[in-house]
Design a protein that fits this description.
The complex is a heterodimer of chains A (483) and B (158). With 483 residues, chain A is α+β, with helices and mostly antiparallel strands. Chain A has helices at residues 11-23, 25-32, 40-63, 132-144, 161-169, 179-187, 192-205, 208-217, 222-248, 289-293, 327-331, 354-374, 379-399, 439-444, 469-480; strands spanning 5-6, 65-68, 72-77, 83-88, 92-100, 108-115, 125-131, 173-176, 253-257, 260-265, 269-276, 280-287, 296-303, 316-323, 401-406, 409-416, 419-426, 430-438, 446-455, 458-468. Among the domains of chain A are: 5-147 and 159-169; 354-397. The radius of gyration of chain A is 26 Å and the shape is globular. With 158 residues, chain B is an alpha+beta fold. In chain B, 49% of the residues lie in helices and 28% in strands. The model of chain B has no long low-confidence stretch (mean pLDDT 87). Classes of the chains: A alpha+beta (483), B alpha+beta (158). The A-B interface holds A 116, 148-150, 279, 281, 304, 428-439, 452-455, 458-461, 476, 479-483 and B 80-81, 83, 88-97, 99-100, 124-127, 129, 155-158.
Chain lengths: 483, 158
Amino acid sequence: MTTPKRTHPLGLFQHIAKSLKAYWFLFILLLSQWHHINSIWFWGTLTLMIFVFLIWPTLKWLTLSYIVTPDAIIVHSGIFVRHHEHIPYSRIQTVQRKQWFYLRPFHLEEVLIETASHDDSAPEARLAAVPTSVATTIEHYRHAAPVPATTAEATTTSVLPAEATTTAATALAHYRINSRDLIKFGLTSLIFIPFLLVLLGLYNKIPKSFTNALIDDASHMALALLIGGALLIIVLAWLGAFFWTLTRYYHFELEREPDQLRAAKGLFQRNTITAPLARIQAVRIKQNVLRQWLHLQTVQVLIASKAASDDDDNDLVIMPVIANQTVYQTMTPFIDWLPQTAPDLSILRVPRNWYLIRNAILFVALPAIIIAWFWPHLSWISLLLVIIAGLQGRFAGRNTAGALLKADLLALQTGHFWTREVYYVPADKIQSMRFQQSIWMKKTQLAHLTVNVRHGNHNQAIELRYIPVTAAQDLYDWYLHRA
Amino acid sequence: MQPTTHHLPLRIKQIWGYSALGSFLVLFIITGLLWLTYRYWDWAVWIPIAGLVLTIVEPIVELAFIPYRYQFTRYQISDLAVEMQAGFIFQKRVAIPIARVQNVTLNAGPLLQWQKLTKVTVATAATSHSIEGLELPEAEQFREQIMRLAREARHDNA
């Protein structure tokens, strides 16, 4: 492939779909002018729509071309301003392949390539519909390109291309979700909360006269109706979220190749992400409140790329749901440096939860006082706020923990918003570390410690608050004097 | 190389003094506007009074803390890491390994330019940390030193 190639005509649909997603409100504009069909505004809007939904995407598709050379991927794009993106293989963070079901019969897919560059929130290259062979070729060249070694264990062997193709074919470990786990994952997902908000928004759109009539008819059982309606909405949101998760994580698969991880998932759109192991910034094991009760965990990796940004909770999920007791033995074949068993993290535990409870309550104090002052009949909301804040403070205190597991592996646990998270961070992926202590904390022998890790396009600050000063100081000194 | 502790140049105190003056002026103008709302729009009288109290107290506190601020703002460079310290009531120390440094930026606002000082920002792949003001030659030497050490310790990351 030495001459620039255009993407497949089906890619045009992708461009049009993107325009529709961004400018759907033009349809509402058009509908609002339906009554003045002869006015200039109506025809103006129609012309604008034809331009936005047909001409612009077509031009975009026509002007985008790409070449895959042995050293780099080159993408030319732009209608008025021409962009020439040159991406060397060694700079690639993730390659993401998205295949919509209608592209499958044509062996086409969308390919997104990302580097660690700070500049853009968009991927460096987005090829709307290209033959599946393109991604395979990229993978092939990428194996040939030496990945700069970063972890202490990683060896800097620049593998020969021929060797790479043979080794790439053999997966070292493989995991495929079974339907029971998938259902568990869907049922315990908390993304039903955004669904709930959408449904509530729709509820507001129902004409008032209709709901009023309904309430008038059934005023004698208004309360029952109200509670029933609320329950119905919650169940609907929950089911919606359940099926949404089900289609997105359908046939989730994780594969370990010698130097990279490959995660694939999705029913209508098959989404495959490959990330080099050496580029993993941290591993996060996460439990929302539902999954804590059921002893289930989710494993994610933090990488310096936005590839996973539309993923559940903004991260690349490598293990959607797994029982507490098997998480480590399941994960170590995929990521060698994770501990074999659940480690003891008690060194960095919070000795007294009181300070965290106090701070959480102070945080809600002002709104709580304002509510109780101006709307005395709503003071129960204030009380509820204070209780929730206090419990959250206690939760944070009980879940803060951490320890230095090996000379080059740090484990940190936090509790935010009823989500327990354990981070495993290789020492050389820590970008900086902050030690904080107020003069009052000198008396109580406590300190805050913040570990900064690169995550997506930004910083992930892992903050342990009110931990024993000696332990925090030891860790800080270890980091400062690490060779 | 032994880590050496550096203080900021003494002239930074003047800059802080001027910035306290600046916040006095800004607060004073805001208080004036609040007084106008009381005078013409019948807003409550305690609003401009609270503004006035803040206008007086805030710059005094800012001025009073300058010696402490100076005393507790320090930075250190060793072969392995840069360390910055700041704060008297809330003490902060941050450690940045030289190998993690992506770039060092010098920039100066009008006040700093006038005093021939410059702010130094050390950026990693995730965070950035600044030293409030250094003498221009000192800042350039700092940058050279870090970039030289960073080249030596270079492990391509992120």
